Amino acid sequence: MPGIRSESTVAAPALTDGPSFTAAANQAIALARGGDARAGLALVRHVRQEARGLALRRSEAEALNAAAMVHALRRDVIGAVAAGIDAHEMAVEAGDRALAHHALVSLAHAACELGLHEEARRVHTACIRHAVEAGDRELEVRARTGLGIVLGDLGEFAEAGPELCRALMLAGRHHEITCPSRALSNLANFHRKRARAGRDPGAREQDVQDGESLAQRAIELARERGNLSVQIDALAIRGWLAELQGDLPGALAFFQDSCRQATRTRSPLAWLLGEAGRIHLALGDADAARRHWQEMLDIATELRPSPSIAIACAGLARTEQSIGNEVGERRWSERAAEEAQELDRIRAQTRRSLEAFFTAG
User: What are the domain boundaries of the chain?
Assistant: First the structure.
């Protein structure tokens, strides 16, 4: 059987029964976590095609849910929604409630990214209830993680912290899908959010210290387990925490380290370049900021549709403004507005599809 080619070559596994399809779907997720999301997508497409050929509806649903998770790792919320809806519908047809709820968690994650926080909260809460009743620990980890992220985004930190702590505890015991390093990274990001929102200096300093410690533990564990996506995110969290302390050179060092890690996988590199460009500009280095934002734009254009396109254009506009180039500033500002409008149109369509799905459910 020929291999599947992408950023690396991955041999297509022999798929003969349900367990082999499950293993292959999990392998696709592992590839994405390891930095090769393109290979993960190629593998999951192969798994779905084979499952369809054998009329294995549950295995096809597994492949689609894996695709939703890989799209999420690539920060492709539009692809994650499309795959997640199909995964849920197929899991329901196959009569697999557990898999249907896993698809719902994937969709709730996407809803949060699209600003549908209340819908995400409702779905995650329902999935936690089902997971506890069914004894599905993997589902419980994913749903509690998602709920903790939503609550943190809403500033409801007293409720968010316990959810993420519970997810971390469970992930240490049951990590076929959610690995402990990701749970540590999520908890570190919770402390970053709370530090950013906090007004009490002492509590803010404690959150920064806790965030740094958890992020560093996440980095070390992710390196041991080969989870590149967590390494990239946790290094960025350390960069944001350094920035909160006013240490811009330190923040830049973490963002640059994260960029170096991300050179093996293109999808997260765009937004990381944007963060590095932002710090360069804050440090007064307009040339370095321009280089980073231009590279961000080049990569994001390859991944269109991507929010990084408009962000890069806006960054280039700020760079030209900083050196007094009014013509360049106006040109990039106009393009940023055009790109943001087009992305809003596409994301609005996706939001409507997701809202209609949740309403029907």
Answer: 265-341
Q: Are 48 and 67 in contact (CB under 8 A)?
A: yes
Cβ-based neighbour number of residue 116 at 10 Å: 20
Paired strand residues for 5:
9
Stated pTM of the model: 0.89
Closest CA to 166 of 141, 190, 146, 188: 141
CATH fold of 265-341 = 1.25.40
Residue keyed to tokens 């590149």: 228
9: part of which helix (H) or strand (E)?
A: strand 9-10
Q: Which two tokens stand for residue 349?
A: 């369509």
Residue 311 amino acid letter: I
How far the first Cα of the chain sits from its last, in Å, is 40
Which residues are within 8 A (CB) of 345 and not within 5 positions of it... i.e. 6 or more apart?
Answer: none
Q: Are 212 and 261 in contact (CB under 8 A)?
A: no
List the structure tokens of 299.
């990569």
Average pLDDT per run of 10 along the chain, which is 361 residues long? Answer: 39 75 90 85 93 92 95 90 95 94 96 94 97 94 96 96 95 72 96 94 95 97 89 96 97 96 80 96 97 95 89 97 97 97 93 91 67
What HEC string does 306-344 produce?
CHHHHHHHHHHHHHHHHCCCHHHHHHHHHHHHHHHHHHH
- Can you give the pLDDT at residue 4? 34
Identify the bridge partners of residue 245 per DSSP, sorted by sequence position.
none
List, in order, residues 6 or more apart from 252 with CB less than 8 Å away. Answer: 239, 276, 279, 280, 283
Query: Whole-angstrom Cα distance, residue 294 to residue 296?
Result: 5
